[in-house]
Amino acid sequence: MTAGSTLLLNLAVVLGLACLGAIVAARLRVSVILGYILAGIAIGPYTPGFHGDLATVAALADIGVILLMFTVGVDLSLQRLLERWRLAIFGGAGQVALMITGGLVTGALLGWPLAEAFCFGAAVAISSSIVAGKLLGERGETGSLHGQIALALSAVQDLATVALVILLRAFAGSEGATPLEVLLAVGKAALFLFVLVPLGSRILPWVFERVARLRNRELFALSVAAVALAVASTSTLFGLSLALGAFAAGIVVSESDLSHRILATVGPLRDVFAGIFFVSIGMLLDPLAALDDLPLLGFVALLILVVKPALITALVRLGRYSWRTSLLAGAALAHSAEFSFLLLTTGLTLGVLSNEVFALVLTASLLSVVLAPATYRGAGWLSELLTRRKVLLEEAWPATSSGRPHAVILGYGRVGQVIGNALARRGFSFIAVDEDAEVVRRLRAQGIPAVLGEADNPYLLDQLGLDQARLLIIALPDALATRRVVEHLRSAYPRLPILARTHSLEEQEYLLGRGVQAVVGELELALEMTRAALRRFGVSATEIQSLLQRLRAPAEPAP
Q: How far, in Å, CA of 77 to CA of 225, rounded?
């Protein structure tokens, strides 16, 4: 069989089984990554039947990991890090350092070499930004406080992977690298980044903008793929891996105006080759090796599913965030996936990680991906149990304006701030409720009554003096939290006027049925754009207002 036909056969088998595994995983409502890994096990050398050519599949997987890490870098929000940089940097770096320390202690107790223990600790320390984003996105909680914190911490973990791989490569070839070898490896990597970041941040966006002006999709896609592969290849000259070179290139263009177009363009190609990457990892896994030592497998799973989220919860709590926010942020990161797989394969390739430890950590990581939704739901149940016992506030309750009508705003994010500013300009008093301690402190410094806590906690709501409130405004991005608030208020305060934000007509219908005036964000945006468009055509303000009222009418409750 020729080299070309071998490549074609392996590509066809890998893509076919990856597709089949993804279908099964989707039907079981688990991550498709699990389906890809199982497809790799099926054609790996440790199971009977057809055996894929590992070298051929690995070569294709290199393209997949380059595109995957490039898009992860592009999607990395530096603005998100800057908004909560103290917690993100100290909390994220502290959690990674503590988990690696735990890995080193575990390795010492089990008699592992130092490099293997370091690789083990690093792999279990890193969470999956893809799994976390999907977990939060499916529940509409990406914009929530705990969602923002979890994604910020995940971004720091992604960045930490660069340093971890550099150190891991420095360990390779000897039992512990000398300080000079580590400094040399770090220096070469730093030289690459110091050249790439200042030059790339100017040159790469400029190149993509010039290509985009040609209005040719194929050419733009080709240029993105070429840049990712070229930068990744160059990074190997400085001691970095292909994946981390591509990740660095993605970070450079992440703040470009074209970042969303880059993601949309390279996304389909990335998904295909990323599937091959995960299949190649499955081919390396000996399922029996992991099952030989079930107690140790359970211990590794415990580190990922319990110890890591517990550390994150404690570190977030030290940042003076509520228990609910801390627990949910920790639970959102109670898993390991793509970057952990990268560290594992790097350690295996460099010879610092044994097949047995590779199988243990990989199997435990897959279990964490499968159990991620259940773990997150469990954290939500625990947070509700805690809030039923006690409203967790750190400061005294503020006094409301005596004898004056007031409003209560639940959630003082972007939407809540606009409403609060409008009320303040007209001299109307209000109480703001938010779970972000910094927001509450800032409001109190401005003389605005503010309460720290979860807005959907019924015990907190009952202490807001709602029997004297003129209006309650729900400006929460979480639809489930909004429902919980409405259910409690309609039972305890049936006559209280409520105004709520929502993101779907179905959710609006639910709220309207309970006497809540609901505003659909996307609908109001469309109506305002309609107003602007009609105004450009010379339509009078009276006619525009009449038309907008008719457009709103189907969504409003019947009299």
A: 21
Which pair of tokens denotes residue 237?
Answer: 């000259």
**Which helix (H) or strand (E) is 450 found in, with range?**
strand 450-452
Contact of 288 with 356, CB cutoff 8 Å:
no
Is the C-alpha dihedral spanning 309, 310, 316, 322 positive or negative? Answer: positive
Query: Following DSSP, what letter does each residue of 391-448 receive, concatenated?
Result: ---SSPPPPPPTTS-EEEEE--SHHHHHHHHHHHHTT-EEEEEES-HHHHHHHHHTT-
Are 293 and 353 members of one domain?
A: yes
Q: Are residues 348 and 448 in the same domain?
A: no
316: helix, strand or coil: helix
CA 132 to chain centre: 4
7 within a domain of the structure (yes/no): no
Structural domain boundaries enclosing 460: 406-555
CB environment 394-410: b (16+ within 10 A), e (fewer): eeebbebeeeeebbbbb
Q: Which residue has better confidence, 48 or 244?
A: 48
Same domain, 264 and 376: yes
Q: At what angle do helices 355-389 and 129-138 cross, to 10 degrees?
A: 30
- Structure pTM? 0.66
Structure confidence at residue 555 as a pLDDT band (50, 70, 90):
very low
